[in-house]
Structure formats: C-alpha cells, structure tokens
Amino acid sequence: MRKTLLPALAMLAAFTSFAAPAAAQAPSGAVTVIVPFTVGGLNDLTARAVAEKIKGQLPGGIAVINRTGAGGSIGVTEVVQGKPDGTVIGLAPTPALLDQPQMNALPYKGPQDYTAIANTVTYYQLLAVRGDAPWKDIKELMAAAKASPAKLRFGTSGIGTAAHLNLAQLQAASGIDVVHVPFSGWAEGSAALLGGHVDTLVINPGEGRQLTNAGRIRILAVFQPARSPFYPDVPTFKELGYDIGVNLSFSFFGPKGLPAGVTDFYAKAIRAAVEDKAFQDFAKAREIEVNYMDSAKLAAFFDKEFKEHTALLDKLGLLKK
Amino acid sequence: MEMIAGLAHGFSVAALPANLLACFIGVLLGSLVGVLPGIGPNAGMALLIPLTFAMPPEAAIIMLAGIYYGSMYGGSTTAILLNVPGEAASVMTAVDGYQMAKKGRPGPALAIAAIGSFVAGTLGIVGIMLVGPGLAELALRFGPPEYFVLAAAGLVFLCGLSTNPFHIAFIMVGLGLAISTVGIDPITGTQRFTFGFTQLAQGIDLVPVIMGLYGIAEVLTMMEEGEQKARLTKVRFRDLVPSWLEAKMSFWPIMRGSVLGFLIGLVPGPATVVSSFLSYRVEKRLSRTPERFGHGAIEGVAGPESANNSATAGAMVPMFALGIAFSPATAMLLAALVIHGVQPGPMFMLNAPDVFWGVIASMYIGNLLLLVLNLPLVHVFVSVLKLPQNVLAAMVMILCLVGTYSINNSLLDIWIMVIAGALGYGLRKLKVDPSPLVIALVLGPMIEKSLRQTMFLANGEWGLILTRPICVGVVAALMLLFAGNALFKWRRRLPAGAALD
Asked: Where are its TM segments located (chain B) (predicted)?
C-alpha cells in the first residue's frame, strides 16, 4: 500500500510545484542542509526551523547536518563542492561566506563561487560594559577613551570577526586608541567582562539580555543604522556622528550553477517559512530581525558587502596575501 | 532554609513520572556513550538535542544533563576491561584499572569506579547548591593571565606522571603542542599548518588522537600477541565486589578526587580530562607506595574516576550561576535551555525555579540511578572478557571507527585516528608512554590562547603576569612543590645503601 502511494504522492507534489506560476522546481532526492556551526546555535536553529517548514514540499526528505570548524569555512566548502542539483544547500552567516575566503586560501573565493538562494535574518551588534562601570553613557565612554589613549580594553569575539570589524570602524571613525583583546566568543568574552579583565565587549543581540536584566552589564550603544526595537533607549553610533556598523545575515546558498528553477523553489519556500508566525516569534526571542531577500537581491547584497569587507579587512591587514 | 524549600520543590518536579523517565533515559544513554569508545558526552548530546525540541524544558534539560554526567560513569568500563578508554577522561583509569583486570580483579575496579563516581557526583551537586554562586564569582577573577599560568603549571606538573626518561617526555610534549597548533589560529582566525588541505582547518581533535593512541594501538597489540591477557572463564561473586582493604584504600582518593574535580571544573577547558590526570598525579604523589601505581593500584582508579565526575558538576557552576559555559558540553546544555525558552543567567534560579531545582534534584536521582544501574552491570561487563580475543578486537575497532566519525561527521577524524593508532603502536614497541603527548594536546590550546590574550591585555608587557596575585601564588606553589620534591629525593638518597624500597 505504502509502496504504491509514495510515488503517486511524489508525482502529485512535483505536479503541484510545476503548476505554480514561476518555473519553480523542487529538487528530486533527499536534501541535505549543511550548517557550519554547532547544534543549538542560532545558525542551527534557523536552519532547522526552515527545514521543518519546507519538508512537506520535498518528497525525498530533508536533513540538517552540522559540519563545524574553521569559522564555518569547512561547512561552506562542503556545500560549494556539492552537486548543483539542489540536493545540497547550506545556511551560513556572512562572515563564513564573505570574510573567511578573503582571509584564508579556501576552495571558494567569494560570492562568484556559490549561488545565493535567500536571506533569512539580519542583526547588528551591541557595545556592553559592566553594570558598575564608571561611564554613564556612550559619550562618557568615548570621552574617557579619548582622554587616555591606549588604556581602555575593548574585547571582541576574535580577529577578523564582525565584532572586530565593528571595533575597527569605530576606532577609525572616532579616532580613539584602545587596546583590542580578542576572545573566542561570548562565553569567554562575557566572563572576562564580568571579571573586569576588559572594559567593554562587543556582543550579539540576545546574548546579554539576562545579564542586562540582572544589572550585571549595560548596553551603551548599538552598531546599527537605526535604533534597535529591542533596545529602544540605547543610542546608535550613527547618532553620535559615526556612520558605522557591520551587519550579520544568515543566508541560504547552494553550489555554483544551481538551476534557476531550484533556486526559485527554495526562495519561495524559505519566504513562506520565515514569514510564518512561529519563525517571527523565534526571531523576536533572539532579538534579531527577519529580513527576507530573494536570490537576486541577496546576490546584489553579497557583492556589495563583499567589496565593503574587502576594504575593511585590507585596512586591518587581514587580507590573504 | 530557602535552599531546602527549593530542593523539596525540585524533587517534586523531578519525581513526576515524565521527568523520572527523562532522567532514566538520559543516564542510560550517558552510560552508553560513555561505554562506547569514541562517542562521548558532547557528541551524544549533540545527537539528541533535536529530539528534545518537543519536550517540556525540565524534561529536556534533565535528560541532557543525565547524558553529560552519566557518560563519566561509563567511560571507565572499556578502560578497565580492555585497556581502551571510553572517554578522553578515562585515559588514566586504564593504567591501573586494566592491570587490576589482568590480575583477576576487574569487578572491584569497576565497582570502585562506579562508587567513586556516585560519591563525587553527589558531592558535586551539594557543591553547586552550597558554594556555587560564590565560587562562580571567584572564578570570574581568573582572566587570561591566570589561565595561562594555571595551564602552564599544569603541563609541568602533569608531565611528572610519565614513566619516560626526561628527554623522551620532552619530545612527546613538543609533539603534542605541535599537533595542537594545527587548524585555525585561535586569535586571528586564519588557517595554519594545514598544508593546503582545507579539511585540516578543523584542527586535530583530542578524541580521535586518544582513540588511536590507546584504542587502535591496543587492538593491534591484542592481535599481535594472540593470547588473551585478561580473560575470565568463570565470574564468581567474590571477584566482583571490592574487598574491605580495597574499599579503605579508595576512600581518600575518592574524597580528594571529588574536591579536585569540582575545582578544576570551574576553569574553562576540558576539565574532565585535566582533572582525571591531576587526580592520578596527586594520588601517586601522596601514596606511600608510589611504585604500585601502573601495576594495579586501586587508588589510581578511584581518584581519577571521582575527579572526572565531580568536574562535570563544577563545570555546571558558572552555567547555573551566570549563564556562562566553560566547556563544549555545558555550552550544549545552555543552548538547550535557550531553545526551550529558559534564559539562563544570574536570575535563573528566581526566574525558572522549576527548571533549576528540578534539574538539581534530578541529578541526585540520576546519580543514584547510575549507581543502581552500574553495579549489577559490573557482572555483565566483566562477562565481556569471556569473548574470544579476535571477536573483541574487531568489536573495539568498529566502535572506535563509528564513535570517532560521529563527533564531527568527518572522515578526516577517522584518518587522524588511524595515523594516531599507528603512532601509538610504534610508541608501545619503543616502550614510550604517550601520556605527555595527550596532556600537551589538552593543555596546548589553552596555554597558547591565554598567553596571546594576556599579551593583548598587557600591550606586550610580560610584567603584567607578576602584578596578578593569583598568578604569583600558582607559580610560588609550583616552585615549593619542586623544592619539596628535590628535598625528598635527596633525603631518600642519604642513607646510602639502606634498602628503603
């Protein structure tokens, strides 16, 4: 019974997708979504939420696989080297897609080596200090940094990360001279901030919420063009006159040369998934914004961001020789 | 008083049938991933997190925590019976545990490992409740300079464990440190020593190296020697329970291991591994008969097995008190909490008392379940030794391969394990102890990263380390220890010709 039903269902599914107005075409066979970061992280949860939503449209099934390591470049490489038939796609943040290939010799050099499918979420980072820090607001902190050059310690999540690019932009725009201390992520950085080993830390939204509520840390400013709806009282650096801020976006992508029909199919399915209420709630809980971009828009976004990051990384001497 | 009320509430949560079941499944799976070589708590939890999405938060966290501490029970089983550590944290258990098995005492070794784990696990939970919040604040005082000094001192102290001559140990440490640098630079994020292989950028993981050096090398030796060294034909009850003397000899090692493990758990890094090495070293140092170590001393099983268990409790202190993860396993628990809408942080205990106290209470229950589960299993596990050698060897080989692959879904890890296996076999032939290599591989990344962060903090001034009281204290303690050691040796040599040993 099941044996006869399955192909029939598959045909039906294929038929309905053909019947859709555009030439969207679901890939045939089991689909693997490669996530280059660990289980339970934002990257992983976003991928799983979308996969759960679109699995009904994929008769061959869909599985999320975590291939971690090397700042995400291991997982991205696996997607890039996959067969361009839609059975292997990935979800990765901009640093893994755009910055890693500029800093390291990788099998992919930039957006020309993969197909942009669709963007899911975008967020900007925040600048945090200890709850009992002497600076009341960002102006006082900037004044203190100017008054005593090379004295204040600013922590980030590592050299070449978005946090570092944000800090470097801030230094260049404001002329402050601070000591940069790179950590490997929130856990290490937050412990150092709370313990007083650094004076400030560049953090991701969501991460610091509990410590903020408990009064252990304060958010002084956001690296964002406009105020964050989650921190309406926190000023942007733009308000201080510094037009800076690197965004982090999580985008679906596939191997180079993915058929337009398949890209289209995924883009539509992903759009429906991220516009779903459950996904919107998930994003809100993580203090990030749903920011759908279709394939063409995302490709243009990649190109623009890639060039901007090239300039930033070049200034920091981080471009691969 | 508040604590007793909280705990009582916790037990009422943990005792709900669904949560009891979650706890049981968790510790059972934990024991299983512990017994299976290669696959460890991190891989086990990563595989199961997606399955917990549909559970209520308490049940999910109870189950995942069960896998974490449960795995520390199981790791000793293959170490003792087959000389193949089930976890990185059981490397030291294999040294004396396997010798005990060879001498016909595998049962007592397994039983003491389970009892030690139970005592340490239970004391660890008491520690989380009583001194957790205070200790978490204390742990924050440790910054990169302190971590650097601690890790470097640890490397020097632990290498005294090795039975190698000094120059050999030195080479092994160098090799371990060198291997630890392959992959991604922890500070700049750039790739190094990958020789053009993108795959190598993921780095050389500890688990495949250990599975190769100990697991594969042991299988090769087994096949070569043909005859079975630790084979039992009949399992008698008398051979399963520890004797009164064995129990007495294990008491203080278990206590010391519990405290040591809990404290090491508060330091970021692979605390379960470091604490088991440290406990072994301490027991050997304190023993009046250190020459028994390496030949089946039960203290060498009791101490490390207790330490690695209480280290899991120690690692949960910063997680519960501040919402900060110091190890990959606690990071996984934190991620699970967030997935279930529970925000860990300084207000965790107040905001989510059901989860906090429920998990704490479930850990008492879980440890008891593990003891009840593991003691009768001693009989089953010991029966494994009845299997013929060739069957055992093939089984271990397959388990190592599958377990190692499961960590990162990476074929490279399999290759690393195979190469490490060949290296381990070669080292055995040369009678070289690989433990300094393992210690260097564990501590190397921590030493490198914290040293470089210290240099960032200090703007390149080495003097900063000397201005930090904790650093000076650790260095002074190490110096005193060495001075004491030298004095001790000198005094032993004094009565020339007197047969002291």
From this structure: 12-35, 47-69, 109-135, 147-163, 169-188, 259-280, 320-343, 355-378, 390-407, 465-488
